[in-house]
Design goal:
Strand content: under 5%
Order of helices and strands: HHHHHHHHHHHHH
Helix content: over 70%
Structural class: mainly alpha
CATH superfamily of the largest domain: Phosphate transport system protein phou homolog 2, domain 2
CATH architecture of the largest domain: Up-down Bundle
Number of strands: 0
Shape: elongated
Number of domains: 2
CATH class of the largest domain: Mainly Alpha
CATH topology of the largest domain: Methane Monooxygenase Hydroxylase, Chain G, domain 1
Distance between the termini: 15 Å
Radius of gyration: 28 Å
Length: about 350
């Protein structure tokens, strides 16, 4: 099991909150740790944008909790009513992300009413806020997320899996049970990748030049993800129509196999070029081969259909695969141009901040 930076950051925030509560002589410092757990955010930008929302949510929860306890007591149904009200308010304001923290604040304040309830409520509120600010401090100072590094290696890992399965299908060496399991895993990885990309888009740089460079990287990574998704689409389509490939004329099957081999090699080389592992001009030969292969694939496929060399139904079923291969080729060409542009223009600002993956 691998522990990520966010897990360590959460543990650090809880620890800091507990020490802060103990140093301030609060009773039940565990409540501060609980608040810190819910307040930790995956990025610095989210911390900055949500800190005021978290403070506001805690104030609202505290006011509602005190008002309802004063008016109706602290019976379980009253606590439940306050929780429902807090959830409804934050959904109305489209602040769903801070609902757990707001609910915890209300329950902590309403949990154990005593004769000096107002003093206890104030202490509990400050206790929760100490946890929130501890989490904010950890988010801002310790272990800043390396989204660019995470995205690149996530994309590379998905590409390796997808390309491996495409090659196995083309050579009819596939185990369908394992393929199905891996496809589920690939889909999950793509969803995680897009979540990381969304977090990366939300980040902001302090200096304008750095922000412009980051925006160029956003365009580039968006294209990398789009190209990876297209490769995944080809894998799904090939798996779905694998029985049709056995009915194809040998010439078409060979051209499809050769074209996809060229495209997957081209894909790998572009990713290596972004990392600086190969020379910038190393993809020019692949580009020419892919362009010629695309023309040849379309011409041969249409000629065979026109001459009715193989069944029309088989041709119709395999047509989506051919369309996806062409789209994949065009996405790769666009991605290659973006990488070339990234290293050709604004070179003093564009830096690749990626470390090699540990073996």
């Amino acid at each position: 099991m691998r522990l990520g930076a966010r897990i360590f950051k959460t543990g650090l925030a809880v620890t800091l909150a507990l020490y802060a509560a103990m140093w301030l002589n609060f009773e039940n410092p565990a409540f501060a740790g609980l608040a810190a757990f819910f307040a930790v955010q995956p990025s610095i930008h989210k911390s900055l944008t949500l800190i005021w929302d978290q403070v506001q949510a805690n104030i609202i929860s505290a006011v509602l909790a005190i008002a309802f306890v004063t008016a109706f007591g602290a019976q379980p149904f009253v606590v439940g009513a306050v929780v429902l009200l807090i959830i409804a308010i934050h959904i109305k304001w489209k602040k769903e992300a801070i609902i757990p923290l707001a609910v915890v604040t209300a329950i902590i304040i309403m949990g154990t009413p005593t004769d000096n309830f107002y003093s206890l409520a104030a202490d509990r509120f400050l206790l929760v806020m100490s946890g929130v600010f501890s989490a904010f401090a950890v988010n801002m100072i310790f272990l800043p997320p390396k989204h660019e590094n995470q995205m690149y290696h996530k994309i590379s890992g998905i590409n390796e899996e997808v390309i491996q399965w495409i090659r196995l299908i083309l050579h009819h060496e596939i185990d369908y049970a394992n393929l199905k399991q891996d496809q589920e895993r690939i889909r999950t990885s793509v969803v995680k990748l897009e979540t990381i990309f969304d977090l990366y888009k939300e980040e902001r740089s302090i200096f304008k030049k750095a922000e412009y460079a980051r925006m160029r990287k956003i365009v580039l990574f968006r294209q990398m993800i789009r190209t990876t998704r297209k490769a995944e689409d080809i894998l799904k389509s090939l798996a779905k129509h694998d029985h049709v490939t056995h009915q194809l004329p040998n010439e078409i099957e060979e051209i499809v196999r050769h074209q996809l081999d060229d495209l997957t090699n081209y894909h790998e080389r572009i990713m290596q070029k972004y990392m600086g592992k190969v020379k910038p001009q190393s993809t020019s030969d692949y580009f020419e081969e892919v362009t010629e292969g695309k023309k040849e694939l379309v011409e041969v496929f249409m000629t065979y259909q026109k001459d009715k060399v193989f069944e029309h139904d088989a041709w119709i079923h395999f047509l989506p695969v051919i369309a996806l291969v062409i789209e994949y080729s065009e996405e790769l060409e666009h991605m290659d141009r973006l990488v070339d542009g990234f290293f050709t223009y604004h070179t003093e600002q564009n830096e690749v901040e990626i470390t090699d993956r540990e073996l």
